[in-house]
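Q: Trace token order:
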Amino acid sequence: MDEFIGGLIGLLLVLAILMLVTGFVFAPTPSVPPQPGVNLSGTYLVGPTGETALQRIAIGSFNISYIRSTRDIGLGSDYLHNGLLFGSNRMVYHLDEKDVESIDVFFTVAKTNSYAPLSIQVNGETVSERTYVPGEYTVPIDRGLFNESVTVEIAPQSSSWRIWAPTVYALEDVTLRVRSFSSQIKEHDFDVFETAYNNFQSGKITVMLDENVGQFNAEMNGQLIRSGAVKDVDVIRFNQSALKLGKNTVAFKPELNSVFSGTANMSIEYTSGIVSFLEVPFNVTRLQWENLATRSGTIRFTVVQVSKPGGLQVKLIGDSTELYSDFAKAEASQYEFKFGKNDVYLGANRVQIHSAAGALFSVKDVNVTL
């Protein structure tokens, strides 16, 4: 018996020596309660808060008018003839002008044989046909004959059976006195950026006038945005319905008896679309990371106010890699999200709370438990 006990003690001593040499120990795996990863107090705004931005468009200088004017167009002198054996010639003038109010034809007959009438036509319609004797003449033209352009033709008729000589009219100082409405407008093309159009807040045109007489019309893509008198420095406002995405045209058009000159510029105010999110860093130790193999970590926070409806998104980021993502409806409530070992890295991590579907809300008391 003593030998048996002595042998057992000897065996235990050998085992003890072996454990000391190899470092091998029998020990249970430690079990630790959940540890706090981070606890952030305070209230934070999450969502599209936005910042005001401007798209500026330089319209530049302009000089516009819509006035009644009178001018004389000199056609000079000519020796007009028309005969069977002598051929013919005529005086023709084409006036490419829409807003003609009246035309008078002035001329002097210096010499004629009066064999046939002298004809004056406007746009193919005869306005005068008579045999003239030497002298000075004025022929008014009915404005009902005017189109977008006016063609005046002066020609003698044929001497017909008088084959020995043509009809002759020697005309001098032939003049057209044209009374018309002279119109000058300003048009400027510009592009509206997609961000400015989609996030439009307000638009305005600032005009600075050196000459300011009459009534002023401003149009955007053919839509009237201002009509009437304007100040020497004035602001013309417009809304999004006047704009198009991409190419647009702004036009300044004066009313009758109006003259304007100066410079103009435009600005479109829009929300830049900046979206804020909440990010909270936390660290995961090796022991905490190993424990996540058997139990879940938890992200908790409270939404205290929802200013714009939508959703929220929770992310876990390790280095620059998104390891975890989950969504929920944004409402005033307490939230809890579970995650595991594969959703975080050993070491530095970040939890992020984002807005989804345009939601704007306030978050407080963010807590991460590992």
The mean pLDDT is 88. The chain has three domains: 32-49+275-369, 52-65+184-271, 67-182. The domain at 52-65+184-271 is CATH 2.60.120.1200 (Jelly Rolls).
